[in-house]
Amino acid sequence: MRQALAIVLLLLSVLALGLWGQYELDPKRFGADFADVLYEVLMLFVLEGEWTNEVEVLPLQLQITRLLAPLASVTGILIVLTRGAWVEIVNSFARYKSDHIVVAGLGEMSWQFVVSMPRPRELTIVERSPENLYVKRARALGVHVLIGDMLDTAMLRKVNLPAARHLVTFTGNDGTNVELAIKARSFMASNPTSRQLRIHLHINDTRISAQLEGYPKFFDDSSAAGIDFFSVYDLNARILLNQYPPERFAEVFGQQQVHIALYEFGRLAEHVLLEALRICHFANQSEIRFTIIDSG
Question: Which residue from 197, 116, 121 is spatially nearest to 156, judged by alpha carbons?
């Protein structure tokens, strides 16, 4: 987007300079035959400027335009044609990054993670879909975004995982996240020069993480890579109930029983319910009440 805007501004600036020169050359013709004047300036962009040789004294503005117009055209064409190649060139430097953070998946949650980073250039992101709208946004922040499959061993090399500090999984699928964590740990173990990697495994269903935490083999060989779990939904539910304790609202309205209404019972609502059941134990021994309103 920024490149396109820069190209347009460059072309318009050169065009305006040429029109200024045409006005200086013949103000009367500029007003009477503006279409012809504009056409002549536009011809300079395609190396058709023979008409300038017929002018006895060419204004400085037109002399500069005659030089810059073809350069602006060629530059714009090269930028458009080589945009994909330039991205590949920039992304090739990700192989040489160190002490960085690798993010698997670029969705809404991982985008919030990107914009919350004080130094987003430390990130290297791998995303499957080239049509993902967040790809251009992340690249505009200076983030390396590679298109491909994070489960591919070649991709682990491209992001220089052995030199990374953290791997954060946001693929959107719990099974894929777990598979990636296991593969990344095995990859790190097979590279003797690797530093210790910390894998932050996002899990939508916290029951899965609870089961894996009780499975010792999942945490074997933590010397190459340590694994921990987190859930954005679980964290949000804890923050919500911590900042807005439901018993306070019940007290304000003179109610003896806490009543929580959940609209649309999605993952976040599920975690709010579980967190409320975990922490909402009141001195008056009253039970918490839930009302779920869902279209499904």
Answer: 197
Helix spans in 26-107 (H): 27-32, 34-44, 60-81, 83-92
Helices marked H in 82-150: 83-92, 108-116, 133-140
Helix (H) or strand (E) holding 187: helix 174-189
- Per-residue confidence (pLDDT) for residue 85, from 0 to 100: 63
Spans of the chain below 50 pLDDT: none
Beta-carbon neighbour count of residue 128 at 10 Å? 16
135: how many CB neighbours lie within 10 A of its CB?
Answer: 19
Q: How far apart are CA 229 and CA 15, in angstroms?
A: 57
What confidence tens digit (pLDDT) does each residue in 89-101 have? 777 888 889 999 9
Token code pair at residue 149: 């499959």
pTM over 0.90: no
Determine contact, residues 207/168, Cβ cutoff 8 Å: no
- Structure-token match 């690797």, residue found: 194
- Asked if residues 150 and 126 have their Cβ atoms less than 8 Å apart, the reply is yes
pLDDT of residue 215: 64
